[in-house]
Amino acid sequence: MTTPVLRFDPIAEAARQWRAHGWQDAADGMAAVTSLMRAQAIMLARADEVLRPLGLSFARYELLTLLSFTRHGALPMARAGALLQVHPTSITSAVRRLERAGLVRREPHPDDGRAVLVHITGEGRELAEAATKELNAALFCRPGLAPPQLETLVSVLRDLRRDAGDFA
Amino acid sequence: MTTPVLRFDPIAEAARQWRAHGWQDAADGMAAVTSLMRAQAIMLARADEVLRPLGLSFARYELLTLLSFTRHGALPMARAGALLQVHPTSITSAVRRLERAGLVRREPHPDDGRAVLVHITGEGRELAEAATKELNAALFCRPGLAPPQLETLVSVLRDLRRDAGDFA
DNA sequence: AGAGGTTACGTGGACGTCCAAGTAAATCAG
DNA sequence: CTGATTTACTTGGACGTCCACGTAACCTCT
Predict the structure, then answer these.
(1) Which nucleotide's C1' is closest to A96 (Cα)?
(2) Mutate which of A21, A35, A67, A86 to disrupt the B interface (most B C-beta within 10 Å)?
(3) Contact B23, A132 (CB under 8 A)
(4) CA-based end-to-end distance of chain A
(5) Is the full-model pTM beyond 0.90?
(6) Residues B84, B58: contact at Cβ < 8 Å?
(7) Residues A9-65 pLDDT 10s
(8) Which nucleotide has its C1' atom closest to residue A109's CA?
């Protein structure tokens, strides 16, 4: 099941093909986009591997942790979607699973009949804390890059996200 | 449907929370992993937007283009999975949809009764070429980063992929 | 106060990804 | 040569993501 190790960088090979076809001005962009896809898959797999024994996925972990950081441990679903930058239906899906596991509760919004407040439970708080501890130790403290490269990566991706309109 | 623009960087805010909780040594790694997730989502959405009118997704585009670069326009499914660094069942899924669209054909491997050769059709070649032209113009030639930053990104992610064991 | 537009959610569906399990063919060991 | 192991693929299922559509509540403007 595990993909065997290649003897060459497949993305560098793709960039070579791009240049050989006369697409020099697109080769670096193609390599950047493809590299982002693969790097994300690597990190997501590592995070999910850490979280699986806890019964969490990275997506649900993010939502749970976001809730734990709020003043009252609750957010309207639309607000959670905006902060996590995902489609509202992804929040619906995550909340349904978190609720089934007893980690969050849905409550009507006191001031807005349309909105639903997602409220983290005590059990949810405990699990979020444990999950963060494990993720910090296994992934975030050793992401496979030296500190200067790490800062460069975060900085470049911040520019990219800003340019894409994620934030002002 | 479109997520509203935030007035602040949600990932920088998350990093601030990390530091406030005493997880300084994990804050940058958290920011890097989360940034990768979001940057990939941005690029995937852009690519899929370009490809949707052509009836393709980025995953199927990648497979189709890979086939078009091979000597005989064909690859065993396992080889395609190794080169694209995805699970074999993802290839099965992509091939099924590409085959239904008449863009590839399955053929028995002449030397190995277990293997299936995926062969790109003439129609598949034409669509791959058209799709590359559009992706180059709309995305790969203007990925939203200046050239030096682009090269830096590709370089850092190459280190990350190598460290993760993607290639020797 | 009422009509029209906007916002917040839910449902159903498509897609890509992975895992688990099963089948068939190739390869290896004795 | 035979049995065990490995490899290649398929199927079924879970999950996260998005889109299209529908419903209900809020808001604005007249």
Answers:
(1) C10
(2) A35
(3) yes
(4) 43
(5) yes
(6) no
(7) 999 999 999 999 999 999 999 999 999 999 999 999 999 999 999 999 999 999 999
(8) C8
